[in-house]
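Quick one - first record:
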Amino acid sequence: SGINAEYGVGIFGFNRDANNKTVLPEICVTKFANASVDVADWKFQFDEKTSTNCSKVDCRNSTRLECKRRVIEMLPESYVGFISLRTIFQVRTIFLSVRAEPKCVLLNATHTLRNEVMSGAIVSEFLLFYNEVDCSESSQYKPQDGLIGIRETLGQIILDSAAMALSLITGFLVLKRLRATFLLYLETKNFYAFHYGRKLTWSETSAFFSGWDFFSLFAEAVTIAGIAFKINLDSDVDHHLDITAVLIGSAVAINWITALRFLSFDKGYYILVLTLSVALPNILRLMICIVVIYIGYVLCGWVVFGPFTYKFASITQTVDTLFAMINGDEILDSFMQVTGSSHLLSIFSKIYFYSFIVLFIYVVLSVMISLIGEAMIVAQKAVRTGMGYWLVEGDVFPELLLGWSNDDGDDIQPKSGQDISAPQNRL
């Protein structure tokens, strides 16, 4: 039941079903049920009913030439009305590695040739799903040093347990800090309501809470979930390699990002976070306008160019194509695919692509760079004047900018009646 060595390198074999029968590769052809075309007389006849014919391919005891002939016989005699051709196969394999226990894996592969658009350009798609399965109980694994496997397994258990315990302790401490902060906020809120008869503003309320605390709590939650899935994966209780990889990778990235909070003790090294804290509100407002315009271009490109090129065949493909164009990819290729369809489409495509490139590459990126540049200037002035605290803890500092008399930061006069003294940094 193994795959012939002519077709690949590795330890592979076809999958077997519950009755221990080989699951052979399958070729499925989808086309219009009744379709005929006479190009010479400009005649055609078809209905919208489709039919799908699937056939098994058995090349286990065949040569390469014989297998090719069998596959060709299964293909449609005429591509009139051809919609798609899908090849499905399941392959077993065993991953062997040095000083590690082998893993039994089932690979589910699907290769599809799509012609739904009927534009003459057939789209090729290949999907591969990785599923780790339990190996046979009669399998034996004998490492050169019998203690190596025990030491590695014990080391993984100790490392996973230590990481889980550390994440739980850190999460508990963050929750304790948030609870104390919330109680302080309630006391302050009641004090102002009783003695001054007013409520705390949003900026005053947000000054009690640090965004790093919520970010750290989220990081610990992702870390704990990732470690739990890894333990299940190592113990063969459940096999979710994709979920485990996403959680572990996200946890590593997020925990490294949280390390930036320790740079806040020296605002000179904290300049990136200070810049983002100033620029983020304006960038978000700009992004709202950008998204609205971007959706308009997506819908227009999908409707106009969808019937002529696969890059605009669906909304998701249109979104990906336009985003790639913003980054400098797919520009010439996409332009050439739609310009030759008709004279009107050629003119419209020029207007469409030229305006999109000018607007999003020249204008939008320049405005965004300008916003970030201005925010960095504000952050640098805040660091020199000792008011970097307000950039992170509240929105008082941007109002103080109205009182600055020059761009050098030497002569800074706050607005009348405002106190610019920053409290001690609580981070």
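second record:
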Amino acid sequence: MGFILGSIFTFAFVNSCLALRPLVLIHGVTSAYTEFGTLERYVRADYPDIQIFSLNGGFNNEVSTLSLYEQIPVFSALLFNITSHYGDVTLLGYSQGGVLSRGVVQMSDNKNIHTFISLSAPALGEYGVPDLGPPLNMVNISREWVYKICYRDLGQSISVCNYWNDPTQRALYLKRNFYLPLLNNEVPHSSSERYKENFMSLEKLVLIGGPDDGVIIPWQSAHYAYYDADLNVVPFSEQQTYVEDSFGMRSLYEQGKVAVLEMAGVDHGAWIESKAVYEQLIKPYLE
């Protein structure tokens, strides 16, 4: 009897370990793959045997400001190396890493991205000029003027410009931003169906943000909400991209595969340091 019970517990333990997906991390702008040390410690304390990969694509610190189109193939290849060995993974992208990870999800055709955690990311764009430090010292530039830099060919070689979404310059955003409008399928392009199919292949989409972030502007962009032309925040469920299900968000939500999570009192840099954020918002989606 004892042998049978022991075998049952061993079997359950082994299957539990096998069910734990590797965690893959992609860092933010003007930062590096080493920024996740605290978060990794939290995860390993609960799951000592989990595989954690903080991807080093060579786009660290100031190099992280290069176009997302340059970065996505590199991060996609690194992720394929992991999924080809381990199968399904949880992908967590933080800040710019979240909007970059979304590009990996939609462009790479990797169907082994089981769960995508978008952590305080400018998912529907950015319309604020926070102090990001060098080489993006833009604090003295009014946000009303940034489009003059971003919505031109040279500007689109800068990562932040790939998701700069000026709600007062809608026509120029659609015409001269060569990244976010394509992911959203707001403009016609040859890969639109593939981008939507890949987004809808997610088993879980976790959107995390909060009102005290201070960098993601509006902070609701982390939840796929955004400004209208009068700078009123329109909820994600009322966005045209959601109503028309242009890239698959509505389909995922109606299937119960989207978690929209909010926590107050967390500034932008604290999302990957806070134990409360990990315990309440990240940990429940690792299994």
